[in-house]
Amino acid sequence: MSSTKDLILDSAQALAQSRGFNAFSYADIAEELDIRKASVHYHFPSKLDLETELLDRYRKNFIAEMATIESSTKGSTRQLQSYIQLYSNTLKCNKICLAGMMASDVGALPDHLSHSLSAFFKEQTDWLAKVMSVGKSNGELNFTGSAKSEANVFLSALQGGLLIANATGDETGFKRLKTSLLAQLI
Amino acid sequence: MSSTKDLILDSAQALAQSRGFNAFSYADIAEELDIRKASVHYHFPSKLDLETELLDRYRKNFIAEMATIESSTKGSTRQLQSYIQLYSNTLKCNKICLAGMMASDVGALPDHLSHSLSAFFKEQTDWLAKVMSVGKSNGELNFTGSAKSEANVFLSALQGGLLIANATGDETGFKRLKTSLLAQLI
DNA sequence: GTCTATAGGTGGATAGAC
DNA sequence: GTCTATCCACCTATAGAC
């Protein structure tokens, strides 16, 4: 049984990932959950509070997902595949990454949010670089640049690919992108 | 001497590329140009009209840029470098691609705009695939997948890389990304 | 083509009862 | 913790003078 606060976050996240954070209102959330706007304000006094908690939760969830992959999936290639799957799942729901969405409005964000956003991308890149580094050490992966640089390309392509695939409705294009990204590391 | 209409488009584009389309108003444009809101409405009755013309102009400009590159720059590698430079210039102004920004709000866009957005990404991918195809034919470039697939990875990485670099303020990361993208094709 | 003035609506936010 | 009621600022948009 989810708390109202969690349900609000779920609703807001779904709206943000498909429309953008500035394209929905408290009224949309209230309607979806069949509660009143004032109740939403009780849990999140300002919309900035909501946005902040949304990104915090998103970061934590992603970190947890990465930890799960690391502990339950063997092999660098398969770990990267599992990571990619997180993005495929998002695309299936006609959504993009919450952080990717917020990044497109970065010029309008207060400092603490842009810092949190920065941290998200660093967390992702660091984890990917670690996995790639291990894979190169044991001979499973093969690439020429630094792991950090490869991780940056990998994440960038996933973020951009998700954005484009979602805008064009081209799921097969995203499928090919996933294949290419892995092929380049083997 | 630019017309008022062009100045409005310029102002709106700059605002959209740094803040997002839903994070600025006619009042912002009017203030920047020192005119009244009603004058903006004279040229663009609704904000949707503004958004539509903005994307149309952006597409045309990009097509013109690509044509210029094709006619004035010799060699596939150098043509791709020139293309990449378009994105570097955007990053220098702390902006992202207008289409990338709009793509993050695609769930809130009317059909005609999402179709135009789709067309933009197709135009970019097609041009890149053509350049890559030529480069492969004459031995200048070397890659294993299809040109279309490589073009998709290339564009995705640039779009995502721009988004991330702009959000993190990491210009050097974007520089390395550019190098990696080209290295993968040689 | 640009202005003043204003309508009409929505969005974020608060007060206070229950 | 949720509700009703309401405020106020801002936003899109229009009417009509110049």
Which keywords apply here?
186 residues; elongated; 9 helices; 0% strand; Tetracycline Repressor, domain 2; homodimer; 76% helix; DNA-binding; mainly alpha
Distance between the termini of chain A: 44 Å
* Biggest beta sheet summary of chain A: none
Mean pLDDT of chain A: 97
Category by helix and strand content of chain A: mainly alpha
What is the CA-based Rg of chain A, rounded?
18 Å
Count of strand segments of chain A: 0
Q: In CATH, what is the homologous superfamily of chain A? A: Tetracycline Repressor, domain 2
Most extensive chain-chain interface? A-B, 51 and 50 residues
CATH topology of chain A: Tetracycline Repressor, domain 2
In the CATH scheme, the class of chain A would be Mainly Alpha
Oligomer: homodimer
Number of helices of chain A: 9
Which residues of chain A form runs of ≥5 with pLDDT under 50? none
Describe this structure in words.
Two copies of one chain form a homodimer. The first copy, chain A, is mostly helical and 186 residues long. Chain A has a single domain (48-183), classed as Orthogonal Bundle (Tetracycline Repressor, domain 2). Helices cover 76% and strands 0% of the residues of chain A. Chain A contains nine helices and no strands. The first copy, chain A, has helices at residues 4-19, 26-33, 37-43, 47-72, 76-92, 98-103, 111-137, 147-168, 171-183. The longest helix of chain A has 27 residues, at 111-137. The relative contact order of chain A is 0.11. Chains A and B meet through helix 6, helix 7, helix 8 and helix 9 of A and helix 6, helix 7, helix 8 and helix 9 of B. Chain A binds a DNA duplex (18 and 18 nucleotides) through residues 4, 25-27, 35-39, 41-43, 45-47.
